[in-house]
Amino acid sequence: MKMQFKGKVALVTGAGKGIGRAIAHRLAAEGVHLGLLARNETDLQTLSEELTRSYHVKTSFVSADVAQRDQINSAVAKLTQSLGPIDILINNAGMAKFGTVAEMDPDEWEQIVKVNLFGTYYVTRAILPEMMKRNTGNIINISSTAGQKGNATTSAYSASKFAVLGFTESLMQEARKFNIRVTALTPSTVNTEMAKSIGLKIGEEDRMLQPEDVAELIYSILNLPDRAFVNLAGIWTTNPQ
């Protein structure tokens, strides 16, 4: 049996822009109610209004930093009180900055790991017990191709995204006996504001991966029959520049 999306509740982190925003729209189009989490409250307010107006779903949003455990515990409590238990968790929030090991400030290096790895852990840890109690759930963690291969100047980002893959694999082994499906995605460069801000070469924008492409992959994964799940999925452009 495939997932019945209408009436389900999803939490999307990093929802205000880029991939997170596209995921929220794609799920809302299927009748999923959305919990939205990011640091920029204005972005969340705008998105919440768009989703409610366009798809007539319920939304709730909280401005919080995924790297702060107390903020996440409070945010999840507020979102679940408003929408009900979370059926789908998309751990999308992340940050990137490149520099050599010798040159990058240790505080910056540590912050990248806190957001990308600890943020994924904190949000998952806040939601997982209820999923286990209900014996159902879907968790998708967004890593990166940089989490499969390191490069010069990507030590912090690659370390954090490699770790997300390890965390996802372990979580999958723990959670599958509770009928919780756990997946990691490893997209290549996606045409987002973050990618541009850190100087990644986007090339011809209409030929590069778009946030909507990642959102469509996530929908496809969630739409698999209940008996099946994808534990790792990559997505690349067909037109590399």
Task: Walk me through what this model shows.
The chain is α/β, with parallel strands linked by helices and 241 residues long. The protein has one domain (9-227): NAD(P)-binding Rossmann-like Domain (Rossmann fold), CATH 3.40.50. 45% of the residues lie in helices and 16% in strands. The protein has 7 helices and 7 strands; from the N terminus they run E-H-E-H-E-H-E-H-E-H-E-H-H-E. It has helices at 18-28, 41-55, 69-83, 106-134, 155-175, 193-197, 211-222; strands at residues 9-13, 33-38, 59-63, 88-91, 137-142, 180-187, 232-235. Strands 3-2-1-4-5-6-7 form a 7-stranded parallel sheet, sandwiched between helices. Strand 4, helix 4 (106-134) and strand 5 (137-142) form a beta-alpha-beta unit. Helix 1 (18-28) crosses helix 7 (211-222), helix 3 (69-83) packs parallel to helix 4 (106-134) and helix 4 runs parallel beside helix 5. It is globular, with a radius of gyration of 17 Å. The termini are far apart.
| N-to-C SSE string, H for helix and E for strand | EHEHEHEHEHEHHE
How is the main sheet built? Answer: 7 strands, parallel
Number of helices: 7
- Principal-axis shape equals globular
Q: Estimate what percentage of residues fall within beta strands.
A: 15-25%
| Main sheet strand line-up | 3-2-1-4-5-6-7
User: Span between N and C termini?
Assistant: 40 Å
CATH class: Alpha Beta
Quantity of strands, as a count = 7
Radius of gyration: 17 Å
